[in-house]
Amino acid sequence: MATAYEVVLYGASGYTGKLTAWKLAERGIPFIAAGRNKERLAEEMAKVPELAGHDYQCVALEHETGALTELFKGKKAVINIVGPFMQLGRPVVEASLAAGCHYFDTTGETDWMSLLKRTYGPSFAAKDLALCPANSYMWTEGNLAAEIALQTPGIDTLDMLYLGDSEVSVASTMSFLRMCTQPQFYLRNNELVQWPWATSYQVRVPGEHVLLNALPWSGGGEPIWYEDDPRVRNCQTLVSFRNQERFNGVVGLLKKFEQECRQLDAARQEEVTNEWGKAVTQVEPARENPDVNRCTLSCQGRGNTNSVSVVLRGNSPYAQTGVLGAEAVRRVLRGQLHATGFVSPSQAFGARNLVAALAEEGYLAYEVKHV
């Protein structure tokens, strides 16, 4: 009897797509691996050892709303990993809405998140569907830490810092270069305020002594998650990488963009960041090594007279993204979705549940300290 597939993994042949396929297989979830080239899909899926004997089907189709809608009909959830999302995401969202599917993606682009919130959020809510972008290490990890911090009464200010130490995929490089040249925001006194262009900041990661350079990195998804949350008055996010030589190279590219490209029209700016991204990262990295590719997320919460520190120490951010995608659809299929419309992963599934899923696989542990 043929499988009635309920999950579509769109963009399955890419680096993050293969990691998500691995985590779907571990959960025993059959899926359709979709993309533009069936032969490439089959070749890339064959590189995932955990898929041996697993039930999946490769489907090729054009990247347009009609074809995607036909594929999504009768399915329950779509995981979209095709970016940059501001360039390529709309047909997937529109097809998910038309077909009645819950939508999850792995974006880091906060202008994309804001677009979804304002343009599509009410329509998804009206159909009782989840619209959950950035269901990925960035910006879910901060969302999880923030929710833990907000359990302390009186906390209304969230100051977050990501430290990563993984190689970056080709698609991620194109996304982060475009998103770092777009307006980036933090939340101050319930209003979004723009960060200065191409400006780095020195930070100290909890438990470490050396100062590192950091960037707003699109401003972080957390100010978007908490923009309308009555619990939160202030929220800001910075991002740093262990490889400071490469990180400072990114800062240099952003300064170059300001000098040479800021005056270009929007379409040409997108072309430039794509070109630069392909030049910076030309091959996909190997799977992360937990002993090497470690990460830290620090959330410092503050109220009028009290504070709380929540630190998540973990490894393998891209693999964590795979876990979050697979865990999201597993919970959808089990009827464990808590909220619909434009939602953060914590709203959709509960922060403690997602922390537990990541911790169970050895990807993170956390500590909470009150002052």
Please render the helix and strand layout as text.
Blueprint: E1 7-10, H1 15-26, E2 31-35, H2 38-45, E3 56-60, H3 65-72, E4 77-80, H4 85-88, H5 90-99, E5 102-105, H6 110-126, E6 130-132, H7 137-149, E7 157-164, H8 170-179, E8 185-188, E9 191-194, E10 201-203, E11 212-214, H9 222-225, E12 234-241, H10 244-260, H11 266-280, E13 294-302, E14 307-315, H12 317-333, E15 341-342, H13 345-349, H14 351-360, E16 364-370
Parallel strand pairs: 1-2, 1-4, 2-3, 4-5, 5-6, 6-15, 7-12
Antiparallel strand pairs: 7-13, 8-9, 10-11, 13-14, 14-16
Helix pairs in contact: 1-12, 3-5, 7-14, 8-11
Low-confidence stretches: none
Which series of helices and strands comes N to C?
EHEHEHEHHEHEHEHEEEEHEHHEEHEHHE
Which CATH architecture of the largest domain is right? 2-Layer Sandwich
How many whole angstroms does the radius of gyration measure? Answer: 20 Å
What would a concise description of this structure say?
The chain is of the alpha/beta class. Helices cover 40% and strands 22% of the residues.
Structure description:
- By secondary structure, the chain is of the alpha/beta class.
- The protein has two domains: 7-136 and 318-364, NAD(P)-binding Rossmann-like Domain (Rossmann fold, 3-Layer(aba) Sandwich), CATH 3.40.50; 138-316, Dihydrodipicolinate Reductase, domain 2 (2-Layer Sandwich), CATH 3.30.360.
- It is 40% helix and 22% strand.
- It has 14 helices and 16 strands.
- The chain has helices at residues 15-26, 38-45, 65-72, 85-88, 90-99, 110-126, 137-149, 170-179, 222-225, 244-260, 266-280, 317-333, 345-349, 351-360, and strands spanning 7-10, 31-35, 56-60, 77-80, 102-105, 130-132, 157-164, 185-188, 191-194, 201-203, 212-214, 234-241, 294-302, 307-315, 341-342, 364-370.
- The strands form four sheets. Strands 3-2-1-4-5-6-15 form a seven-stranded parallel beta sheet, with helices on both faces. Strands 12-7-13-14-16 form a five-stranded mixed beta sheet.
- Strand 5, helix 6 and strand 6 form a beta-alpha-beta unit.
- Helix 1 (15-26) packs across helix 12, helix 3 (65-72) packs across helix 5 and helix 8 (170-179) packs antiparallel against helix 11 (266-280).
- The N and C termini lie far apart (60 Å).
- 50% of the residues are buried.
- The mean pLDDT is 95.
